Amino acid sequence: MRYNEKELLALSRQPADLAAELGMRAPKKGNVVKRRLVKLVANFLFYFRTDEAEPIGALLLEHCRVTKEESSGFSISFLEDTERKYRFECWSEEQCQEWMAALRRASYEFMRRSLVFYRNEIQKVTGKDPLEQLGISEEARFQLSSLKA
Amino acid sequence: MKLNERSLASYATCNTPADNSGFLYKKGGRHTSYHRRWFVLRGNMLFYFEDQASREPVGVIILEGCTVELVEAAEEFAFAVRFAGTRARTYVLAAESQASMEGWVKALSRASFDYLRLVVRELEQQLAAVRAGGCPPLPRRPRALLSKENGCAVWSTELPTTPMVTNNGSRPGPPPLPPRRRPSVPNEPPDRASFAQLHEWYGQEVRALRDQWLRNRVQP
Question: Domain PH: where (chain B) (predicted)?
Fold first, then answer.
């Protein structure tokens, strides 16, 4: 699949929402844990060799599942193949929880659901639609009906 | 750079309704012709397929950091998705009707994750303010999200879980009106702008764009 790599590279250089050196194990690459600089920007997770400026790879964080693993670890897998796991090892349980929470929020889907939630709540309290002022009240992606179970 | 392409393809073709979809003509390169492709917008990813029945996208345009403009081109209903930076590619697309073009320009100019996050942050503050019973605060200047030098964006996205407690008396007044749009749009979002100004900038209302285009006749 073609994609605009230059722009993805530029995104990887943006200020991170969260960044740390973690142990990483790619799926099917055996049990070798590599030390990687892992950087969360928008809904992408970039991973770098610790001494390099360009990422080795990026994971789009849509339709993914973040699971706790043992000893301060977590894994990311995707809906179409939940067995294929990207495993990460943190330095502490605290850091692990921090990353898991951040990754769960780092998707467009999560943001959209949050928006619909807040819109609805504000409307309940004030009787007004906060999106009207922003000129986006008609967008299909922000309607209550777009929320799936 | 490696990318989780299998997941991307799966995201592109999943059952949930897309944010926008339709046929667009895509210009191959600087000197090539247009190809008609089936486009699907999901979040900040613009996928394009050979045709509507294809099971895998030919490609995807990651929309983070782009601007969307009307352009003067041989094709009718043409618009461009532009990225910053030297030698950055500009994607020239053409719709099949005026309405389709306007719909796409609107959808694409508000498709970034950053924009959505700004809106969510704004609503979160509004809700906190109205629950507290007072007037909602003036939109705060988002700091870390816009500053290029700063590190982590610090913001809370915890969804309130407790049921709302209605405050009996005071109803807050309506939020302040956004300031008038400035006549010339700078290249960067104004560094210390209020949220409403930023929304205007990101929003790129089609009418204002068209006015500007008619005035300036900027060449792509």
Answer: 17-113
B26, B93 in Cβ contact below 8 A?
yes
Best of A80, A81, A115, A134 to disrupt the B interface (most B CBs within 10 Å) is: A134
The vertex-A130 CA angle with A127 and A136, nearest 5°, equals: 130
Q: Give the residue from A47, A59, A50 showing the smallest Cα distance to A106.
A: A59
Q: Give me the count of residues in chain A.
A: 149
User: Rounded to whole angstroms, how far apart are CA atoms B107 and A139?
Assistant: 9
pTM value surpassing 0.80: no
Tens-place pLDDT, residues A74-91: 999 998 888 899 999 999
Nearest-Cα distance to chain A for B40, in Å, is 13
Q: What chain B residue is nearest to A123 in terms of C-alpha separation?
A: B127
For residue B40 the two structure tokens come to 């699907």
Whether ipTM > 0.95 holds is no
Q: Are B105 and B95 in contact (CB under 8 A)?
A: no
We find that the CATH architecture of domain A5-106 is Roll (2.30)
Instruction: Delimit the domains of chain A by residue range.
Output: 5-106, 110-146
The H or E element spanning position B38 is: strand B34-42
